[in-house]
Amino acid sequence: MMKKEGIDALVNLCSRRGILLPSYEIYGELAGFYDYGPIGVSIRHRIEGLWRDMFITGMGNMEVFTSIIGPSIMFEASGHLSTFTDPISKCEKCGATYRVDKLLQAYFEGKGDTKRANEVLKMGIEDLDKALRESGIKCEKCGGNLGRAVNFNLMMGTDIGPLGNVKGFLRPETAQGIFTDFKKLARAYGIKLPMGIGQVGKAFRNEISPRKILIRMREFSQMELEFFFDPGDKALYIDGSEIKTANLSKEVNFLSREVQEGGSQDCSKAKISELIASGLVPNTLMGYLMQNEADFLSSLGIAEDKIRYRQPMKEELPHYSKGNIDVEVLIGSDYEEVIGNAYRTDFDLQNHQKYSKEDMSIVNGDSKVVPHVVEASFGLDRLFWAAMSNSLYNDDKRGWDVLLLSKKVAPYDYAVFPLQKDDKIMAKAKEIDSRLKSMKLSTFFGQSGSIGKRYARADEIGIPNAITVDYQTLEDDTVTVRNINDASQIRIKVGDIK
Ligand code: GAP
Asked: What angle do CA 135, 136, 140 make, to 5 degrees?
């Protein structure tokens, strides 16, 4: 029987098989930083490829690749220097730091006081400090007193140039490079609205308490799509086709702000078209992206009942937002945000126009407009973790773990195993391996260990099919193909492998 495995088993698997490695670990723990080993890279590339197929090429959008480090004035314009903060408190005895809002929320939830836990989200720094004093919460590590709550900016700074007199920051989101390049791209590529510009790249946040492996990291990857449009346009055309609200008929699990305010986390089923009509989703463009996100998550093998679309509480909204919908996936026992959809209005382009004095308007029809933006921001690492954690099962019949990834994100298409240590079999297996590679199929060639051990390894790292080459192959050009789902085997002609 197949039994779903928990996060601990996944962490163990990733460590044992070198799928994820804590960065620079030989020098001690550097919290919030992870490296991907070859299998991890392979799965990541596939997730990235699916995103690109669907959200860039599939929608007729453009992709860019912009710099990680930006000058401080740019982050002044984007609002990150003044508002990208979390409240922290430091233990006066051992120096351990805590995120005050999270600490208080957990404290009130522990007391069963959901109302007060929700109120924490609305508190400014003074109120947070007051609530921290009243709660009497002590340092979890040493029992010491917690110091004053202060706002801490999450951006990582650096000095640019040999004299170090130009202050720069590592971007906390990939989006800003897209906004600052927008006008030049519009001119060079003759952009017509609406048009999406996306990129895949690293983002950096000096998170106070990195946790849950890939869920809260200090260096992570985003796949962001900034969709520029004119809110004055009556109809929405994407890649030449009109997108009508009524046709966005996908039903999703929706958790509204109102329900959360009432202290519940119960989702209801709702059609995206209805969510747009009722104003819970700010516009058709966001609804269109949400519908595609549902397809995208399904192609990652994440079941619909593990996904919810959540309207964040007002206090959770980023400084630029006029309506957000978070897409959350059940990972272990918690829902985690994997995609953030935000109606950023013209906030970013207007501010960059103001600070840089560059005109950010473009011509749309008869008028000049500074476009508005709907953003879909995907966390690549969290999506990787969501796909992995939702795929790991233990099969008591086989006696080992099986990673039932969607074929679309599996690290390899085929494992190729020569059964016997025989030169002729090895040469045949190599020939089959080359043939598959020439068909643009990826392969894992395994020649060491018993065949049972090799199957176990293939199952654990999620290879959907394993080809075994044996003496019969030399006679009739057939191989056995083993399916990961039920370990069943069929014998087929080499020429029939697709
Ligand atoms: N440009 C908008 C933006 O960055 P966000 O909700 O802060 O919005 C977008 O981030 C996505 O990036 C999230 O949905 C999540 O998947 C991922 N993400 C954010 N912070 C992260 C962190 N510390 N570690 C890993 N992924 C993170």
From this structure: 110
Sign (positive or negative) of CA dihedral 425, 420, 398, 445: negative
Is the CB of 338 inside a 6 Å radius of any atom of ligand 1? Answer: yes
Whole-number Å distance between alpha carbons of 52 and 63: 9
**Tens digit of pLDDT for each residue in 474-487?**
999 999 999 999 99
Probe target for ligand 1 pocket from 377, 380, 384, with the most ligand atoms within 8 Å of CB: 377
Does a cis peptide bond (omega within 30 degrees of 0) precede residue 38? no
Tell which atom from ligand 1 comes closest to the C-alpha of 218.
23
Q: Evaluate: CB of 216 within 6 angstroms of ligand 1.
A: yes
Find the 191 Cα to ligand 1 centroid distance in Å. 28
Establish whether residue 337 lines the binding site of ligand 1, counting it when its CB lies within 6 angstroms of any ligand atom: yes
| CA-based radius of gyration for the chain | 25
- Spans of all domains in the chain: 41-81+157-389, 85-153, 412-496
CATH class of 85-153: alpha beta
Least confident residue range of 8-17, 70-79, 103-112, 430-439:
103-112
Helices (H) and strands (E) in the chain, counts: 16, 29
- For the domain made up of 412-496, the CATH class stated in words is alpha beta
Distance between Cα 388 and ligand 1 center (Å) = 18
pLDDT single digits (tens) 150-186: 999 999 999 999 888 899 999 999 999 999 999 999 9
Give the three-state DSSP class for 379: strand
Residue of the CA atom closest to atom 11 of ligand 1: 379
CATH value of 41-81+157-389 in 2.60.40.730, 3.40.50.150, 3.40.50.720, 3.30.930.10: 3.30.930.10
